Amino acid sequence: MTCVVSVMKSKSLRLGVNIDHVATVRQARGGQQPDVVGAAHAAIKGGADILTVHLREDRRHIQDADIHMLKRSIGIPLNLELAATSEMVNIACSLRPQACCIVPERRAEVTTEGGLDVIGLADQLKPVIEALQNKLIEVSVFLDPDNKQIKVAQELGISTVELHTGRYSLQTSKTLVNQSLNELTESANFANQLGMHVHAGHGLDYENVFGVASIEVIEELNIGHSIIAAALFEGLENAVLRMRNKLLAARE
Ligand code: PXP
Known about the structure:
- The protein is of the alpha/beta class.
- It contains eleven helices and eight strands.
- It has a single domain (14-250), classed as Aldolase class I (TIM Barrel, Alpha-Beta Barrel).
- It has an eight-stranded parallel beta barrel, surrounded by eight helices.
- Mean pLDDT is 94; it is low at 1-10.
- Pyridoxine-5'-phosphate (PXP) is lined by residues 18, 20, 54, 81, 101, 103, 111-112, 142, 162, 201-204, 222-226.
C-alpha cells in the first residue's frame, strides 16, 4: 500500500510597500519631485502586491491629492493607514481604498510608536470600524503582540490584525531577538485561531525580515523605510524585488 504523505503548503506572503518616505523627500522642497505615483509604479514593477500609505493628520508626507491619484492609477490594492478620527474616516469612506489600517498617532512621534490600545479605545473605535466596513473596506488594527488586545479586536468585529514588529526589529542580542520572535509567533497563531487574518510590519529590513516572514500564518508584511533607503542606491524596482525574494525564500 502506498502511503500518501500530505505536506501542508505554507500560505503565500504578500508584500505591501509603504511609500510614505518618497513623499517625505518631496515635501522637503514642496515641489513635485520625487513623484509618488511614479514610485508606486516602480514598486509594482518590483513585485509589490499592495501599496501602503499613511495619511497623517499633520500631512507631513502623504497628501490628500496623493491618495486620490494612487487609488485611481495603481491597479493593485491600496492600504490606507489612518488615525481613528472623524476627519480620516470621512476621507477613507469617500476614497474607499481596499484596506484601512487603524494606527495610533501622536503629533510629536517620528513614526508610529507602539500598537493601538483597542481595549481602552473600544467605544471610540466601534463607529469608526462600522463606518469603514459599511463601505466594504477591509479594516485592520495595528497591535502589539498582546493577546488581550487581539481578543478585543476580534470582539469588535475586526477581521485583520497587523502585528507591530517594531520591538523585534530593535533587539540586538540573539536572546532578545528570539524572545520577540516567539511573542510574535504566539500572537500570530492566537489571532489565526480566532479566525483573523494576520499582517505584520514596522522596522523590518533585509536582515531581520526572515524571522517574521517565516511565521506561516502571517499573510502580509508592510515594509517602507528599509526599501526606500535601499532604493537610493539600487533603484526602487530592484529594492522591492530584493525584498520580494527574501519573502519567497522564507516560505520555500
Ligand atoms: N505598518 C504600519 C502600521 C506602519 O505605521 C508603518 C510605518 O508607517 C509600517 C508598517 C512600515 O514601517 P517601516 O517604514 O518601518 O517599514
